[in-house]
Structures are given as structure tokens and as C-alpha cells.
């Protein structure tokens, strides 16, 4: 063991020496000084130079240029910047998130720290390179309070690259062509995260992480510079101190588009957990009452905003081991400073006591459109009611306001779920893990204008890169919803294209700390054998997550492991698909029992959405499963050791 330890130590020292030599400056013919830093495995390379008083970077993968020479600065580009010194760091250690797609994450990077002389004050530029991504951050020091900091970054992409990005509650945009931006008068709003399908057969995503350290910068804003013919981001804030640390500008790089969704670089770049005791932060599933109002069960009971309805939800949650019940906005009629007017027929205190006795936790919605209770006392009031979380609606995209809401929720032991196009606070679930999810997507319970199988696939591959999503998947009474048998169903009847198996798969595919299932208990009980897949999901407690297959607008297939059990969910577009899913992630030499939850031969996302079949079998490592999915359909597997 002693010899092995010495050998390992010598290897580490040798590797570090090579790294230092690699970063050492080298003079080119034009006397430009270049600083080079590689990823631990050596495939990604960032080259930094400061020619013409401008600091710029180039990103390469295996010698191929992914992003050409691009400026990166902390003050407006009229300020001269000169690199005066450099040093290197390297790290390789593991850390454990409170919840998420992985139970342990490796933080392995090489880092270049550059001292930058400015016309006034000084700065440090941090260039952190991982095997699958890059982060850039500035530290600014020596400027007067009130001065403006401009965090400017260019992305000089290839003209053959195509882009995709979120579009609020509409279908995500794309494919977008850079040359088209030169000729069009109106360039579409480019939201984070931008996904780049690179001409060199790589996939990139442009986003940010750790907005926590400087919320006044606001969310990263992208635009297209027609003069320079490149994507740029430029966020501005006034200095409130003489020292400033910016968020990270992040570029993810993967060979497969699905791997962008499980890329851990944004989490590694985020500030470490700021909650001392996280024992109360519990991910899980939740029932939700909003779309069940006016649903009449077979026993004649009609759901509404009342004590009896909520007790039925709680009974079902307790029976099925569902951790939470989310009560939406109609639990109160009006709100004034320091007072909620509880809706008639609802005894909220009785419901809270009933849930507590049944072991079910409650999450309560707060809608700022109805009036202002006052945020200074809102969160402590929710905790006093016995609530375990708050769903916060219509607070807008103000970053500082959002961060304050997360912090105050944490101080009062509340999970927080944000509604209404919220701030895409990438990495915040590491820093403040009570930020359990958010509707940074078209939640399918809103108007159906954008919710098609294709838009689901796009959001799962684009919107989900920035973090957990509250998409409200898992409807089982699709026929009834399409007929308009709900108070809040689709505005256009028969516009909901999905199958019950696809709905089940979606609850696994979308990463979230809180999986909100929106249908009536009776709809799930009617298909209890299929509901088993959702019931067994250990939401947020995953040890490992993989996207097995993914193609924009076509399909996505995701596998997640908890202990020795694997859950696999796949969905297809309106044409239907067949995927060969190779179980090469299973342990060698073991036999596993598998339960298949599948579309039947006559299943169709519009014509016959509620038929399905369930069968069992045996599989081993390397077994290939032919997942046959109907139009708008899906496929699920629950795999556990024999």
C-alpha cells in the first residue's frame, strides 16, 4: 500500500507539472502571448490572449475549433486590458448534493487564473476547464462604488452551426441559422440556455451558473451582433462595493445532445450549500388539485375547493406513499396586508392536521395577483400553518426578489416552487436546495397551444439544461380531459396528444426535486397497475442518471438508478418510434426482473390514448429491448435485481 501511495503521489505531481508547463506562455511570430489550459482528459482546450489590449478566448476540442477568437471583458470594451500574470490550479474531488440526478458528483477541473490590468483598478479572470465544459468568471477590484461593471462575452460560432433556445411558454425556437440573423429585421429573443448543434458534430450549450453571488447582474442576456457576426452576452450592474465577483459564463460541450441535460459542470461551478441543516429538505412527488376541480368520481363525489376534496387527495397520497399534496390558488378568495380570506367550505387548519396525522406534507400556493400579504411575514405565516412548501406565483423575473424568496423560504423550512416564467437560477439547487423546482417551461397544465409531443421533447432537451422543471406530467384521464370534463382543461378540445404510458415516462424524464402529478386520485386508481411506475419513482434520490437516446423533435429516452434498481422512460413524437435500448448499464453477471409498461398495438396518442399493456421478463447486462412507441406514445421499464 505504501508503494502504491507513493506511485499515485508521483503520478499526481507529474501530471501537475505537465499542466503547469502547458499553461506556460509561448510567443508567436506576432509577439502575442497565449495562455493555454486543457481539460483533465485533454480534449477541450481554451486559448487566452490579450492582443490589442483586449482579452479574448478560443475554444477547441481535439484540435477542432468550436468557438473562434471571442472577446471576454468586465468593463466596456473601450477600457484597455492587459494580462500581467498567471497561475494555475487543479482539483479532483467528489461532493454529495442534497438531492438531484446523482448522489455523488466529481468536481474535476484545471484552472487558469489571469491577473488583468485595467485603466483603473484590476481584475482576475478565472478560466475553469472540465472534461465537458468551461466556465469564465471575473473578479473586479479597485473601482469606485456606483461605477458600472459590464460582463461582456462573445461566442464566435461557425456559420454552419444551428441554435435552439426556450421561448417562454411557447414551442422552443429552432433551428436558427446565424446567416439568417444578418438578413432578418427582427432577431428572435434568445433565452438561456442556448443549445448549439455544432458543425463539428458536437453539441454546446451557452448559459450561466452561480448567479447567487451577484444577483444584480440579472439573468444572462444573449443577442446577435450583426457587425461582428456573432452571439454576444452583455450584462451590466452598478457596483455597490469596491470588489465584485461575477457569475460564471458557461459553455457545455458534449458529443450527444442528451448529455447536456445531465452535465454537472453548472452544479460544480455553483456556490456550495448555504443551509447548515438540510435534513428537512425532502424531494418527492406531489398530488395537485388545480386541474381536478369539477371532476366527478364514480361514487358521485365532485371535487372542488373544500375540506372533503382535500382529504380525499390526502388519503390517496398516504395510501400510495406520495410525499406531498399541493393546494393551488383557490384556497383563499382575497388577501390584504397580513390576512388571507379563506374560501368558504375550506377548513385549512383541519386539513393541515389531517395531513399531518396521515404523514402527508402540504405545499400551499401564493398568487401575488390576488393581493399582497407582505413578503416580510408571508413565509413565517406559511410555516405557522404547518406547510412544508410554497408555490410562488406571478413574482416576475426579478433575480434579487427571487433570491430573497428562496432565502426566506429556507429560513422558515419551506420548499419553494416558482410559477410564471421564473428566473432560470442555474445551480441554485446546490446553493439553496430548498429551491426544489420551477416552471421554466410550458407546463402542460396551461393552455395547450405549445404542448405537443414535439414541444415536450424540445423542452426536455433545452429548458431542462438550466435545472429542475415543474412540468406537471402524468395525466391518466386523457379522454376526459380532451372532452372538456374539467373546469380547467384545454381551451381547444381534443388538442391533447399523448398516451398514458407516455405520461408515465415523462414523470421520469423531466428532472425535478418535486414531481407534480395533476390528475384525480380515481384516475390513477383506475389504472393502478400502470400507476405503479410513478408510485415507485424515488424522486430526487437518484444515484445515477443517463440520457440513452435523444434527437430533437423525435424522441428521448432516460434511465435513472436508485440503489440497484433502474427506471427507464422513453417518449416519441406524433409519428411514433421504435428504439433499441441496450441495457449495458446493468451490472455484469446479474439477472434482473423487469416490468414493461408499454403502449398496446392499438394505442394512439389522439385516437386511443388510454390503452396499454404490462408484462414482465428477465434481462441481463447487454440485453437489447425494442421499445415500440405509438404515435405520441411512450415506453417504461422498472428493472430490479432478481
UniProtKB/TrEMBL annotation:
The record's section on SUPFAM superfamilies has:
(Trans)glycosidases
Q: What's an example of a GO molecular-function annotation for this chain? A: hydrolase activity
**Signal peptide (from-to):** 1-29
- Occurrences of domain Glycosyl-hydrolase 97 C-terminal oligomerisation (ranges): 541-640
**Which ranges carry the Glycosyl-hydrolase 97 N-terminal domain?**
37-270
Arranged from A to Z, the UniProt key words for this protein are: Calcium, Glycosidase, Hydrolase, Signal
Instruction: Report the domain of life of the source organism.
Output: Bacteria
Required cofactor names: Ca(2+)
UniProt cross-references to InterPro entries, sorted A to Z: Aldolase_TIM, GH, GH-type_carb-bd, GH97_C, GH97_catalytic, GH97_N, Glyco_hydro_b, Glycosyl_hydrolase_97
Q: Where is each Glycosyl-hydrolase 97 catalytic domain found? A: 290-439
The subunit structure is:
Monomer.
Protein name per UniProt = Glycoside hydrolase family 97 catalytic domain-containing protein
Tell me the organism: Mariniflexile ostreae
Provide the taxonomic classification: Bacteria, Pseudomonadati, Bacteroidota, Flavobacteriia, Flavobacteriales
Amino acid at each position: 500500500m505504501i508503494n502504491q501511495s507513493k506511485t499515485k503521489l508521483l503520478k499526481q505531481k507529474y501530471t501537475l507539472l505537465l499542466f503547469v508547463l502547458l499553461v506556460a506562455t509561448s510567443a508567436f511570430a506576432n509577439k502575442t502571448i497565449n495562455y493555454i489550459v486543457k481539460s483533465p482528459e485533454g480534449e477541450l482546450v481554451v486559448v487566452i490572449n490579450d492582443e490589442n489590449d483586449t482579452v479574448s478566448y478560443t475554444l477547441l476540442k481535439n484540435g477542432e475549433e468550436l468557438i473562434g477568437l471571442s472577446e471576454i471583458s468586465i468593463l466596456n470594451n473601450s477600457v484597455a486590458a492587459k494580462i500581467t500574470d498567471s497561475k494555475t490550479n487543479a482539483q479532483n474531488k467528489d461532493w454529495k448534493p442534497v438531492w438531484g440526478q446523482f448522489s455523488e458528483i466529481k468536481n474535476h477541473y484545471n484552472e487558469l487564473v489571469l491577473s488583468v490590468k485595467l485603466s483603473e483598478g484590476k481584475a482576475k479572470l478565472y478560466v475553469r476547464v472540465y472534461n465537458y465544459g468551461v466556465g469564465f468568471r471575473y473578479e473586479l477590484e479597485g473601482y469606485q462604488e456606483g461605477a458600472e461593471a459590464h460582463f461582456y462575452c462573445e461566442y464566435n460560432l461557425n456559420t454552419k452551426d444551428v441554435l435552439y433556445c426556450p421561448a417562454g411558454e411557447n414551442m422552443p425556437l429552432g433551428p436558427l441559422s446565424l446567416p439568417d440573423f444578418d438578413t432578418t429585421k427582427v432577431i428572435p429573443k434568445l433565452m438561456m440556455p442556448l443549445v448549439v448543434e455544432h458543425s463539428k458534430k458536437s453539441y454546446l450549450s451557452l448559459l450561466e451558473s452561480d448567479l447567487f453571488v451577484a444577483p444584480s447582474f440579472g439573468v444572462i442576456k444573449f443577442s446577435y451582433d450583426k457587425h461582428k457576426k456573432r452571439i454576444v452576452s452583455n450584462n451590466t450592474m452598478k457596483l455597490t462595493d469596491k470588489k465584485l465577483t461575477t457569475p460564471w459564463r458557461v459553455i457545455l460541450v458534449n458529443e450527444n445532445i442528451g448529455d447536456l441535460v445531465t452535465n454537472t459542470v453548472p452544479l460544480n461551478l455553483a456556490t456550495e450549500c448555504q443551509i447548515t441543516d438540510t435534513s428537512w429538505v425532502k424531494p418527492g412527488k406531489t398530488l395537485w388539485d388545480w386541474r381536478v376541480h369539477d371532476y366527478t368520481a364514480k361514487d358521485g363525489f365532485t371535487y372542488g375547493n373544500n375540506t372533503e376534496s382535500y382529504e380525499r387527495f390526502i388519503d390517496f397520497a398516504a395510501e400510495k406513499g406520495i410525499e406531498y399534496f399541493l393546494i393551488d390558488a383557490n384556497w383563499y378568495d382575497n388577501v390584504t396586508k397580513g390576512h388571507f380570506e379563506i374560501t368558504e367550505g375550506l377548513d385549512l387548519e383541519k386539513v393541515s392536521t389531517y395531513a399531518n396525522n396521515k404523514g402527508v406534507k402540504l405545499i400551499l400556493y401564493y398568487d401575488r395577483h390576488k393581493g399582497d400579504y407582505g413578503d416580510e411575514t408571508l413565509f413565517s405565516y406559511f410555516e405557522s400553518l404547518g406547510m412544508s412548501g410554497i408555490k410562488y406565483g406571478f413574482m416576475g423575473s426579478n433575480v434579487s426578489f427571487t433570491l430573497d424568496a428562496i432565502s426566506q423560504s429556507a429560513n422558515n423550512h419551506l420548499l419553494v416552487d416558482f410559477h410564471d416564467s421564473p428566473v432560470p437560477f442555474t445551480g441554485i439547487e446546490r446553493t439553496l436546495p430548498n429551491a426544489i423546482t420551477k416552471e421554466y417551461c410550458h407546463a402542460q397544465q396551461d393552455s395547450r397551444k405549445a404542448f405537443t409531443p414535439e414541444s415536450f421533447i424540445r423542452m426536455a432537451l433545452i429548458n431542462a439544461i438550466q435545472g429542475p422543471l415543474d412540468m406537471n406530467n402524468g395525466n391518466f384521464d386523457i379522454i376526459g380531459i380532451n372532452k372538456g370534463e374539467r373546469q380547467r382543461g384545454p381551451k381547444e378540445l381534443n388538442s391533447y396528444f399523448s398516451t398514458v404510458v407516455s405520461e408515465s415516462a415523462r414523470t421520469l424524464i423531466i428532472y425535478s426535486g418535486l414531481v407534480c402529478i395533476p390528475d384525480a386520485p380515481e384516475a390513477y386508481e383506475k389504472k393502478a397497475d400502470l400507476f405503479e411506475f410513478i408510485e415507485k419513482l424515488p424522486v430526487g434520490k437518484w444515484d445515477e442518471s443517463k440520457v440513452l437516446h435523444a434527437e430533437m423533435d423525435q424522441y428521448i429516452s432516460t434511465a435513472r438508478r436508485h440503489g440497484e434498481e433502474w427506471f427507464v422512460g422513453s417518449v416519441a413524437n406524433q409519428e411514433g418510434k421504435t428504439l433499441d435500448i441496450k441495457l449495458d448499464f446493468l451490472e455484469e453477471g446479474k439477472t434482473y426482473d423487469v416490468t414493461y409498461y408499454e403502449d398496446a398495438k392499438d394505442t394512439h396518442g389522439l385516437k386511443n390514448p388510454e390503452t396499454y399493456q404490462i408484462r414482465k421478463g428477465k434481462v441481463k447486462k447487454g440485453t437489447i429491448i425494442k421499445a415500440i412507441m405509438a404515435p405520441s406514445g411512450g415506453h417504461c421499464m422498472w428493472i430490479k435485481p432478481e
